[in-house]
Amino acid sequence: MPARSSSELLGFSPNARLLIVNNDDFGIYRDVNEAVVRSIEDGIAASCSLMTPCPAAGHAMHLLRDRPELPFGIHLTLVCELPGHPWGPLTDQAEVPSLLDETGRLHTHDRIPELLARARIDEVETEFRAQIHAVLDAGLTPVHLDWHCLADGGREDVFELTAALAGEYGLAVRAWLDPARTLLRGRGLPAVDHDFLDSFALDLDGKAAAYAQRLRDLPAGLSEWAVHPGLGGEESRTVDPHGWRVRRSDYAFLTSPQARELLRQEGITVIGYEAVQRAWTT
């Protein structure tokens, strides 16, 4: 018997056009938190990913407690891309030295190769468990795991660790690249069928038109967009001078009437990670 398609594993027909629209970076700062919630409640996004080491994680968790119906995952965080506003691990620094730079903070984006070369898998597990339990101890119920700034965890052993943690805690895992996607399909689990979109890869000029065309061209099967909405207010422009325009333009499209109308016209079904979690845990 041929393997069931990702669409079928998710309860849809093989020819369905399915799109996961997940808001990443929930918790990074308040401007983003507000935009993430609005993009789900008033826009086309369907789930989000929470960064527990970040300064506004407490605010994000407060928003989640007030919205138990809002599906969210844990954006496992070993990287800080805001060097002017650094954050460290949740674990005591002495327990995870291989994950830290010389200041005791998490590595910046430009030092990801150094992080991946040095990180001990036992210390990665210690920090990942701390981030998961920060959410569980707050009385919240995540549905999936993914990673901040690291495609499929950045290393095969990190991906395998994360998949094992997902199995332990009853969660799903995001997979971006072919090796991990092939691995999941071999285990009878749904994985995206097409190239993964990270919204930071899109040009700002003509971005709304590019999004619209991607919806028109969306193939049958399971696709995923990792989007990064932000309101673009004063806080955003101060703490995130290189990223706020990306976040503001994402928010504008996600909450636009055009986006919702295109989904209707094209017959595209947007899903969040709770649908994927059901397939992982049945």
From TrEMBL:
A Pfam cross-reference name: YdjC
GO biological process terms on file: carbohydrate metabolic process
Keywords: Carbohydrate metabolism, Hydrolase, Magnesium, Metal-binding
Cited InterPro entries: Glyco_hydro/deAcase_b/a-brl, YdjC-like
CDD domains: YdjC_TTHB029_like
Recorded superkingdom: Bacteria
Signal peptide extent: none
Cofactor(s) named in the record: Mg(2+)
GO molecular function per UniProt: deacetylase activity; hydrolase activity; metal ion binding
PANTHER family tied to this protein: CARBOHYDRATE DEACETYLASE, YDJC DEACETYLASE FAMILY MEMBER
Protein name: ChbG/HpnK family deacetylase
Organism of provenance: Nonomuraea turkmeniaca
